[in-house]
Amino acid sequence: IQDDHKLSASELEEKYGTSIDKGLSSARAAEILARDGPNALSPPKATPEIVKFLKQLVGGFSILLWIGAVFSWISFGIQFAQGAESPFDNLYLGVVLALVVILTGVFAYYQEAKSTNIMASFSKMIPQQALVIRDAEKKELPADQLVVGDIVEIKGGDRIPADIRLIFTQGCKVDNSSLTGESEPQSRSCEFTHDNPLETKNIAFYSTTCVEGTATGIVINTGDRTIIGRIASLASGVGNEKTPIAIEIEHFVYLVAGVAITVGVVFFIISISLRYKILDSIIFLIGIIVANVPEGLLATVTVSLSLTAKRMAKKNCLVKNLEAVETLGSTSIICSDKTGTLTQNRMTVAHLWFDNQIYSADTSEDQTTQPFDQSSSTWTELSKIVTLCNRAEFRPGQENLPIMKRVVVGDASETALLKFAEVILGDVMNIRARNKKVAEIPFNSTNKFQLSIHETDDPNDKRFLLVMKGAPERILERCSTIMINGKEEALDSEKAEAFQTAYMELGGMGERVLGFCHLYLPESEFPDSYPFDTDSTNFPTSNLCFVGLLSMIDPPRSTVPDAVSKCRSAGIKVIMVTGDHPITAKAIAKSVGIISATSETVEDIAKRLNVPVEQVNRREATAAVVNGMELKDMSLEQLDEILCNHSEIVFARTSPQQKLIIVEGCQRQGAVVAVTGDGVNDSPALKKADIGIAMGIAGSDAAKNAADMVLLDDNFASIVTGVEEGRLIFDNLKKTIAYTLTKNIAELCPFLIYIIASIPMPIGTITILFIDLGTDIIPSVALAYEKAESDIMNRRPRNKRKDRLVNEQLAVYSYLQIGIIQSVGAFITYFTVYAEQGFLPSTLLGVRVNWESNAINDFEDSYGQQWTKYQRLYLQWTGYTAFFVSITIQQVADLIIRKTRRNSIFQQGLFRNKVIWVGIFSQIGIALILSYGLGHVTALNFTPLRFQYWFVAVPFAILIWVYDEVRKLLIRRHPGSWWDKNMYY
Amino acid sequence: GLILLFYLVFYGFLAALFTFTMWVMLQTLSSDIPKYRDRISSPGLMISPKPDTALEFYFNKSDPQSYAEYVSTLRKFLEAYDDSKQSQNINCTPGRIFDQNDVAVKKACRFNLSELGQCSGKEDKTFGYSKGAPCVLVKVNRIIGLKPEGEPRIQCTSKEEGTVEMSYFPADGFIDLMYFPYYGKNLHAHYLQPLVAVQLAINSNSTKEEIAIECKILGSPNLKNEDDRDKFLGRIAFKVQMTE
């Protein structure tokens, strides 16, 4: 940290070799630019595209398939060298396997690139301009050309182009919210006011905005060396955690690969000990690997995730990293910003007090009327003050927009009042025109009021109306009467007490309160032509008539309370982290339900029991409002204790840096943490969180870069719909995987039985690939469209240590039960095909060597007929096709049963998910095309199958369905039983 | 424990289901004739003796040891054709399909070994191997119900002309239609498939050469001999190499 803020202007000129009047010379500036580089944040280091692509080629099951491909080529090499007759089969198989890996890799890469591209569009920035003095001339330059020592001029509305030491200011205020999170504009001056450069008033920081006034300053830091740049580089230092779904998929890949390798090696050993040749054993091994690896599954998972991502994008959650889709579903804590996320980010009139009564106003986003009682004539007077004593105006040309959406020129409070008046009275500008303004004293911080004098629109009333608004206590001081039910009454102590109570109550709700008063100037003293002079105040400003109070707040978005209660029932803890005042924060937290109506903070209990805070048992308080100043002095243990003991927590007055500490605290509790943020300095917290959510509207680029997800509408409720989608996709991926794994057994068994019983090969390796990458693909994607079985927002977030994507029950049920039924069904078809062609099952056992011998062309069947090699081979392909068809038919049943895990299919509705039917028809369609359309292409090993063989496995398909219905019935009937524990996946 | 019991019951049930379904399926089958014969519409050709390796004959005519295996294979193969084994077989009408569809007990036609002439093994116990004119028996694969049309005969050609002279037994390699159709192992127990012997008189100047020979079935429109993929459908190729 430099001490530039302590130096005088001339010292600075000397230090940076510049002149305040003339600026740098262009030549010198170019030199410094060459030395320091452009004034821009260096983007995070991107992984080279080729590395990303190669990662796809070796990730997941790819290694296993590569091994399969290499073995294929090795056996091709050996066979070729031995001069065997058809060595090319193995060459092709190797090529096909390699192609499978490459194509799925390309696919996954493409999917990833697509979602990254969405983000890329975000980071495109409009080049920023800066007004610089160089060579004694004022010049507009692109901001990235700025160098240390440049003299820049700033005016209201500009973004500060670099870290600047101010040397001249005029009413300059900056919005430092992106740096400190404080939403109130801060005034800037040339004086050195604080040792800490972050606190001193004479430095303006890069990427903050100048709200009003003008200033001139010397650039002291550019690019990555600015304060923001340092924070941003801090963010890239925070490691990216693996997403929960990535961990789950890895776990699943290990599981399946483990099974594949174990079975492969065991059968390699068995086949060697059964005196098979090494070469044959290697070919078996390839078959076992291919059968065991669900080649299409990872692509399916990617598609399912991107379908969900698309669905979420429609609901305003833009997902940057596909896997984040699921992370959101396993979220157990959401640390949310207040302003803009929970609230509308717009001051709105929330309460009124007049006639000794508090009225509530409608604060929803699209209000068109106000329902409170407007019959009192006090209100008529109050509305006049609200309308007239207001300098805010609508930008012209917005007549067709809803009032709440119109852009207003003016500060937040005045805007709120203007819109409030427009909603109730209509056409405020017209009313103002009819009540011509003759004098005005604008608001300033010394008198804390605003005053104006108007003609009235009543032609019979020639009096002038003086209206005033301001800080309630200041307004009350100037009043001697108070209007009750349209009549002026003396302001006695009782009425003043009533005012105080109302003021405290509104203030206690975290609202900004304004007082309103007026005075009709007597016509006799102030005739038509009276020259009002605001400097000498030749009119009364005391003994006025108090009319009422209006209080304003940035109200919660109307969808938020519902969303928060959804989170609550979904077992997600919502923590508010805000830079705002604790009272406001708590009020909003209460109104949206982050702090529920019945729960109390330690302070509340202390107040209720009338004891000091220290005496309250901290465990009794479910809620806590933690101030940033307290947080600063807390040890990690104390923070953990707070996070652990209180279910409803609000962090107020926190700096964005503290957000990181809070996130880390939550993660220490084992929670999956989602964090929202918009400022640059939120980026470390966004990066650190399991899922960082940046705001699409208010968010800075740095925040969007660090986040995993962008909320397009900045609305907290969108997060909750995202959570729902995330949970759904987790359930559905479970179903997809269960569906896909099942037929692996039906693909594996043929190899095992082929090796052990030496029967003709029941299914070919290529055929297996046609199932895995052909018939099964669309159905497994279709499961992603399945609706939730029950309200997924009513259960707790999944425990990332216990609730695995693929658990033991899922694997066992798929592999050892449904998979085995499928195998039996497929083998029945296989034996039927052979028996009806003349080879009874008894003849098939142990024939492998002769069956496959090229030299034997008079192979005898059970009826004494003799077959040539090719005739046998063609029969073998018919067997492949029959086996393939049987698996496909039974996969239809498998697809249907996978729609639910607990409910009956009939509860879920067989036809509700139309995509499932697309899947079923595609499955059967592809099988029909392969058998009848491509049955004559020798290389594919399919044959046109007799029509009745399509139905051999149907009873088994029905058995699968019935058995699974029984399983689900028992699970529903006997929750917690042995059956439930072992059969529910 | 419960898990094991469950799987015992589960797999027991599946095994029973499998057995039952297979049993039902087998009940639908006839023991005499397979349900479908569409995969073998046309017969393949095969030779005897069939060398172990590929279809390649290597022998030294002056070394009996080198062709002993061929001779013994032929002898064994022809045992079934011995007159003593054919006592139940009847003499059928030559040149006509021997249709026995209506007869319950299907008779087999007699195939006289003498028709194989010099290749019958009666005169020359070495089937010509010792003389440098080895015999090879060509047979047509059995297919139930196959009725050849026309006048099927076996004809062999050598790629290299003039290296070998072929003589056929029966004359011109004709296959008599009376041996067709075949009624299957069960009904037609004593059936003997017709044979054509080809004697390959190898020219003395062609010894040591590898002679490629292809035999085809000709003269019958419904017996295919030129399938692209099936190299043994109605034809067979083999190689002979003789040394002295």
Structure description:
Chain B: It is found in: Cell membrane; Membrane. The complex is a heterodimer of chains A (985) and B (244). Chain A has 985 residues and is α+β, with helices and mostly antiparallel strands. Chain A has four domains: 9-26 and 128-237, Calcium-transporting ATPase, cytoplasmic transduction domain A; 317-343 and 557-714, HAD superfamily/HAD-like (Rossmann fold, 3-Layer(aba) Sandwich), CATH 3.40.50.1000; 348-553, Calcium-transporting ATPase, cytoplasmic domain N (3-Layer(aba) Sandwich), CATH 3.40.1110.10; 779-984, Calcium-transporting ATPase, transmembrane domain. In chain A, strands 10, 11, 14, 15, 16, 17, 18, 19 and 20 form a nine-stranded mixed sheet that branches. An eight-stranded mixed sheet of chain A has the order 8-26-25-24-9-21-23-22, with helices on both faces. In chain A, strand 27 (859-860) and strand 28 (866-867) form a beta hairpin. Chain A is elongated and about 135 Å long. The two termini of chain A are 57 Å apart. By secondary structure, chain B is α+β, with helices and mostly antiparallel strands. Chain B folds into two domains: 1-30; 37-242, Immunoglobulin-like. Helices cover 19% and strands 22% of the residues of chain B. In chain B, the strands form two sheets. Chain B has a four-stranded antiparallel sheet with strand order 1-3-6-5. In chain B, strands 2-8-7-4 form a four-stranded mixed sheet. The radius of gyration of chain B is 23 Å and the shape is globular. Chains A and B meet through helix 28, strand 28 and helix 31 of A and helix 1 and helix 3 of B.
